[in-house]
Amino acid sequence: MALTLRGRRVSFDWLKPPPATPDGTMSIWDHLRELRYRLIIAVVAVTIISIVCAFFFQRLYGLIAYPYNEAADMVLADRPEANIELVNSGIAAPFLLALKISAFAGLIFSAPIWLYQLWAFIAPALLAKEKKAAMAFIASSTPLFLGGVGLAYLLMPKAMAVMLAFTVDGTTNLIDGNDYLSFIMQMMVVFGVAFLLPVVVVALNIMGVVKATQLAQARTFVIFGSFVVGALATPSTDPFSMLALAIPLTVLYIIAEAVCHANDKRRGRRSVTAERDPVPEIAA
Q: Residue 13 gets which letter from DSSP?
């Protein structure tokens, strides 16, 4: 691909990914070219969708403010004297808030694109049969990520109400809009990324890095680690948010382990069949 500008031919071939090889092997330079290409596609997609989302800023702000409004109503229902307000502090604060909301919405809505780019970067290292088996499960990464984001959004009012309930009588709790958005973003991204755990586990199993028996041996430590991650990764300090993340992580890990067991059994049957019925050599 090339363009002619002022009589000079400008080539964009350097943006293209390296050509695929039958066995999936690449040099370090080709891996870097592939990574650069995938990052450019992901960044361009997030940028374009963020610009589109900027035209719907008012509606997006309503969605973002919904958890706060619900949490404030919960607190005021029990303590009508509580004084809680969501404010913008500073001249540039409203503009920065609009930029952050648009960028965050662009990141969420472009998830199918950048998740596919992640898959496409890993795919060359897999054999053709493994690609077909992995593609079906990798395709579930988008609903898993969006499911984690959605769960965090639904749980946010309760988690915020628990923390806002500690507002001391006679004081005004002024919640900065940018700080509130940062809190929302952290919770939703943490839940979304955490829900990708089964994709990572199964991908490692398909590539032969881990086996289902190893996953079974590590199950107890993973369950314990899920509760630790739930306590440390969520910005809120209430046990409700910790359990809301730890329990789904545990369930998803068990599901991924079951998928890996089935995959290892299929791989074992194929190897037995190959040893029993070897491909005959063709005489020269």
A: G
Question: CB–CB of 14/29 below 8 Å?
Answer: no
How is residue 275 written in tokens?
């040893």
Q: In terms of residues, how long is the chain?
A: 284
Residue carrying the six token digits 């579930």: 140
Strand, coil or helix: 234: coil
In terms of Cβ atoms closer than 10 Å to its own Cβ (0-12, 13-18, 19+), residue 170 is: exposed
What's the CA angle centered on 180, arms 174 and 186, to 5 degrees? 150
Grade residue 141 by pLDDT with cuts at 50, 70 and 90: confident
Per-residue pLDDT tens digits for 169-195: 777 888 888 888 888 888 888 888 888
Per DSSP bridges, beta strands 2-5 and 8-11 are antiparallel
The residues with which 3 forms a beta bridge, in sequence order, are 10
3-state secondary structure of 215: helix
